[in-house]
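Suppose you are handed a protein chain with no further information: no name, no annotation, nothing but its sequence. What can you learn? This example shows the usual starting point.
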Amino acid sequence: MIHQLPERWRLPSILSAVSQFAQIGPFIYLLIRYFFPTRVDNVKVIYMILIFGAVSSFLLAFFWNKSVVVHEEKRSIYLYILHFTLSLLDGMSTLTFLPYVGEYFAKEYIIPNYIGESFSSLLPATLALIQGFQDEDCNIPYQNKTSTLTRTPYKAKYSVFVYFLLIFLLLLISIAAFSYLNFSNYAKRARKNRFSWVSAEFSLNDETVDDSSQRDKEMKQKRNIKEKEMEIRFLFILTVMVTFVYYGFLPGLMSYSTIPYSNKFFHLSITLSSILLPLSIILSIFSYEVSIQRICLESVAPFILSFYIYLVSVLSPCPPFVNNKYNLGGYLIVFCWIITSLMFMRIRCLIAAKLEKYGKNILLKLGCFTIIGQVFGGLTTYFMVEYLRLFIDRPKCAPIDFCY
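A reasonable first move is to predict its three-dimensional structure. Written in structure tokens, the prediction is:
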């Protein structure tokens, strides 16, 4: 898409900015939920998200490459609009899916919810990996020491049209799966009321056996209120930092940090990061209760790698190791994108699992802070790309030895 649309390398940052403008939808949803709490049903909202997402994906198959002239410059307006719709729904899912799980299911289903979220990236990424990548349509000879060679562009196995139709099919399957989750007897047996009844029964028995121990517990809880408030605030701040970098700031730099090494590394960075994402979340199942110190420690590596990605983007189109004969720079940037994606998603899982015990309202606030970080990160990148012009893309059909 980047080589076929008029925006070229600026496309990721523009789409990232469109995504951030779409976050006005979740805030409107929050206002409706605040003023009319009894009229908001997570189940109905989730159905709306899935249905509108399916319709938008279907329309993208036909309109993704249609452009309109705006102020004497071609713009992919139809792509912007449909991407805005999908981003609107994506932001709404942040505020509905996790609270839905927290309301109806036990804590053990929090991380499986993130596993499902990762599979929503895994399946499209697998389709993209099978599709392959497509080079610029160039046929420009370049000089070697002994002869003149011609670059042969690589062609994708199937078109963007087919890809979006496959995504449409996946969303139809998602609608069917969510219907099964709501109406099947198997899913109803796993509802939270079953676990709540058991815990309430044991709590009642404990109170009848030893009433004084219950009062001691209440005293301890009152003494720990301030510590819990500090913990919640810190995790909210960390969530804003993580989503600012991973969901807001970095996506707009994807093309500038990877395409200088070749389209292959751009393709690998996107697909492998998404394909390996479930692995990180599955490993998080064994880390339901971790300390704040451990979460902070695990956050260091992805923030450092994120800075390297930013540095490579600033030095684009001739970043470090760009002409290394072993493609060292390309494999290094792919490694950075993969580890950054896996670690940031793991941190999100650990934070959500730690905050679940405070109730669904805290999980709803967690979704709000997720959106806040994402919005500011995306708008920051858009401002740097569109107005400050801090990042430079390589000229179209530039020779392979452009950076020598």
